[in-house]
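Protein Record: Sequence and Backbone Structure Tokens
======================================================
Tokens: labelled as protein backbone structure tokens, with as many entries as the chain has residues.
Task: work out the structure tokens from the sequence, keeping to the layout shown below.
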Amino acid sequence: MAVIAFNCNKIKHTYWPFTFKDQEDEEGNKIPGKKIMVRMPSKGTFERIQDFQDITDMEESEIQAAGVIDSLHALIAEILNNNLENPNPKKPKKPIRAEDLENYDIEECMAILNAYTDFMDELKTDPN
């Protein structure tokens, strides 16, 4: 029986393309949002995402009352830091901070989180 070598460096990875919101400079000129390619989450990030699944059915006022918006911004920053520009998400070269996401409201944050979990679910069901 022949032994087939397995090389972890040759595993085909799938990434989630993400584009930040467009912004305006002081003169009102539109600055297109930065584009990044996000990896699948680490175990710790995956567990934090699972914790937030409970709030997806809550109303915006309930979310604000629960005081989770800062935690939600931190989670999204953690997810987005796991991108191709940052080989080590624990010490990113170009970090995305929760403060960078403060102009994203609760609806936008939940939409990002839901789209990312859809991406994860799609990979689980993909036969390739």
About this structure: The CA atoms of residues 19 and 28 lie 20 Å apart.
